[in-house]
Write a structure and sequence with these properties.
The structure is a single chain. With 327 residues, this protein is mainly alpha-helical. The protein has a four-stranded mixed beta sheet, with helices on one face. The longest helix has 29 residues.
C-alpha cells in the first residue's frame, strides 16, 4: 500500500471529483503511474493552504496543482518526458490556450448565475466537513469572482448582470476552441504522441466537467457531445484510470432504495483522520456555543444577577421556623 495520499473533493455525475484542480491532480498522478491512495473525503482543515487538493507523502504535505506537478517531476514522473522535441513548445502553447478559452467559461458556468452558483455552492458544502462547510464555498466564489474581474472585466457578486455581449463572447470563444481541439485530436488516443501528457491531464479535466455539469446552466455541453471523439476521449480516460473512484448521487440513491449495498474501492482516509474530523466538529460546536454566550454577555443581551445567587438573596426563614418548632 502506498504511503502517498491525495485528498480531493468527492465526485458527481460519474466523475472522481467535482473540482477542476482536484480532477487535474488526479489525472496527473494516474497518468504518471505514481502509486497513490485517493481520499475522496478530504478535509481542508488538514491542508497546509486550507484548500483541496493536497497530497501527503509521509509527513510531507503539498497543496495546489502547481506544487503537486513539481512533486511529480521530482518523483521522475514528468508526463512531458515522452514528448518529441518538436511537440514540447506546442504542448505548452495549447495548455495556455486551453486555460484562456475554457477557464472563463467554466468559471462563469459554475458561479455566474444565481441558480448555478447556488447549485455549485451546495455541491462544495455537501463535501466539506462542518463547520468549514459554511464558509469554504464562499471563499471559492470569491476566487472565481476575482478571476472574472481580471480576465473579463465584470463581477459576479455585484448584483448587476454582466452585459450580454460579454457572456456571449465567453461561450463563442469556448465553442471555437472545442472545434479546434476536436479536429486536432482526430482519432488519436492522446493529443501528443502515444502517451498522455500534462496537456491531456488538463484537457480531460475541463472536458469532463463541462460535459457532465447540468446542461440547463451549461449550453456548451451539447456542443461537446456533438464532437464524438471528445466524448470517447473523456469516457475512455474515466473508465481506464478512475474505475472505482467515481461517484453519482443519483445512482447511489437508487442503490440505497433497492436495499443493495455498494462497495467503493476509493480510500476514504484513515481511521485516525476520521476520528480527527469528528473531534474538530465537536470542538467547533462547543467553540460556537461559548462564543455566542460570551457575545451575549458582552453586549448585555444576556445578564446574570449576582444577587440572585448570593447567600443574602436566599430565604432561610422556613428552615429557621422548622428548627424552632422542633425545639
Amino acid at each position: 500500500m502506498s504511503e502517498i495520499t491525495l485528498h480531493v473533493y468527492q465526485g458527481e455525475w460519474g466523475l472522481p471529483s467535482i473540482d477542476l484542480e482536484c480532477l487535474t491532480s488526479l489525472a496527473l498522478l494516474k497518468f504518471a503511474e505514481i502509486p497513490v491512495n485517493i481520499n475522496t473525503r478530504g478535509s481542508t482543515f488538514f491542508s497546509p493552504s486550507g484548500t483541496l487538493p493536497y497530497l501527503n507523502d509521509g509527513t510531507t504535505k503539498i497543496s495546489s496543482y502547481k506544487d503537486i506537478l513539481e512533486y511529480v517531476k521530482k518523483k521522475g514522473g514528468s508526463l512531458n518526458r515522452g514528448l518529441r522535441e518538436s511537440d514540447l513548445n506546442p504542448s505548452q502553447a495549447y495548455l495556455e490556450h486551453l486555460r484562456t478559452k475554457l477557464h472563463s467559461y467554466l468559471t462563469y458556468t459554475l458561479w455566474g448565475r444565481a441558480e448555478s452558483a447556488e447549485a455549485t455552492r451546495f455541491l462544495y458544502a455537501k463535501r466539506t466537513p462542518f463547520p468549514m462547510s459554511f464558509f469554504k464555498p464562499g471563499q471559492i466564489l470569491n476566487k472565481a469572482d476575482q478571476y472574472l474581474q481580471i480576465q473579463r472585466g465584470f463581477s459576479i457578486k455585484s448584483g448587476i448582470p454582466p452585459e450580454e455581449h460579454l457572456t456571449r463572447q465567453i461561450t463563442i470563444d469556448a465553442k471555437i476552441f472545442i472545434n479546434e481541439i476536436s479536429k486536432q485530436l482526430g482519432d488519436q488516443e492522446w493529443f501528443f504522441g502515444s502517451s498522455p501528457s500534462e496537456f491531456d491531464a488538463n484537457l480531460y479535466s475541463y472536458l469532463a466537467l463541462l460535459l457532465h455539469y447540468p446542461q440547463n446552466f451549461n449550453p456548451l455541453a451539447g456542443h461537446i457531445r456533438e464532437c464524438k471523439n471528445l466524448v470517447k476521449y473523456v469516457n475512455r480516460i474515466t473508465t481506464k484510470y478512475f474505475e472505482g473512484f467515481t461517484f453519482d448521487s443519483g445512482k447511489a440513491q437508487e442503490t440505497a432504495k433497492s436495499g443493495r449495498k455498494t462497495k467503493s474501492k476509493s480510500t476514504t482516509g484513515s481511521q485516525d483522520e476520521e476520528e480527527s474530523n469528528w473531534k474538530i466538529q465537536v470542538f467547533f460546536g462547543l467553540f460556537s456555543i461559548v462564543s455566542m454566550v460570551a457575545f451575549s454577555l458582552s453586549t448585555g443581551i444576556l445578564e446574570i444577577s449576582r444577587e440572585s445567587i448570593s447567600p443574602e438573596g436566599m430565604d432561610f426563614d422556613d428552615e429557621d421556623d422548622e428548627e424552632t418548632e422542633d425545639n
